[in-house]
Amino acid sequence: MLLILGRRLLGALPVLIALVLVVFVLQQVAPVDPVVALVGEKAPPEVYEAARRQLGLDKPVPVQFFNYLGSAVQGDLGTSSVTRTLVASDIVKFLPVTLELVFMALVLIAVIGFFLGLATAQRWRGSGVLRVVMISGASVPVFLACLIAMLVFYRWLDVLPVTGQTSAYDAPSGPTGFLLVDSLVAGRPGLFLDDLKHLILPALCIAIGPAVAVGRVLRSSLEGTLRAEYARTARAKGLSGTQVLIKHALRNALGPVLALIGLQLAGMIGNSILVEAIFARPGIGLYISQSIGKGDFNTIAGITLVVGLLYVMANIVVDVLQAAADPRIAV
């Protein structure tokens, strides 16, 4: 297991360096002048040149790249022209909100996807209806799912909130930055439930598409494993269908499911940006939408690097989980 983890980490280094290179090139060709964004369009020429030297933009392009790479490795992503604070500090502030949303979406994907996969593979009563639901759910765009969820659960039923992270005005901001955790640390279960209520709808909108995909892949994988020779042998020994499913088939069917979740992570992170903007959650999505409107390239580049790093690390975790589920995977 440690060997797999080490190899995946080594393999991630070229990917991350390539990502930094792509972001740097985009910064060079972008029509936005970072110096103007920092000092303003009406700044005197001497102020402009001083800021240009301070940012290192007067040096050759290869030197600028290695300086940018070194700063990124140290966590220095520049200064936001919107908030006038370090981009890394802003990301530390807003990222936990997004990670909390993505984590809740992963929980819903696991619950809904495994239920759909098991129900349709075992042909439970009503599985035909579930197949229709799976096909319909896979075709619903995220923004439409958000609008439908708002209409049903807020406008008609009035059971779930649709804006913000919490209704509390005195929510704790530490020690972890994750409100679900901080509310429990502060001994405020009411705040925990309130945050959970605010998470359900946006997380569900992100999870619908991936959950349906997981359900379909799990169903196909289970149908194949249940027809395998070892499953027939287990049934011949007297094991019930449930015992064969849990003890033998399910673990062997997890490989394709985990691989699919790894592929879905990029889309989930991207969709979380859109969903946060729709539900007005104070996370990375809302932060970057404001930065794009103001042409804050340092923030856009910093968030791109952080999201890319999260995606690479999440796929490393998926690879390790695949190896744990199926030791036959070659390392």
TrEMBL record:
Residues 95-322 form the ABC transmembrane type-1 domain. Keywords: Cell membrane, Membrane, Transmembrane, Transmembrane helix, Transport. It holds the Pfam family BPD_transp_1_N. It is a multi-pass membrane protein. GO terms for cellular component: plasma membrane. Gene3D superfamilies: MetI-like. Its main location: membrane. CDD domains: TM_PBP2. GO terms for biological process: transmembrane transport. The keyword Transmembrane applies. It is found in: Cell membrane. The chain crosses the membrane at residues 9-30, 101-120, 132-157, 199-218, 257-280, 300-321. PANTHER family: DIPEPTIDE TRANSPORT SYSTEM PERMEASE PROTEIN DPPB-RELATED. Belongs to the binding-protein-dependent transport system permease family. This is ABC transporter permease. It comes from Streptomyces scabichelini.
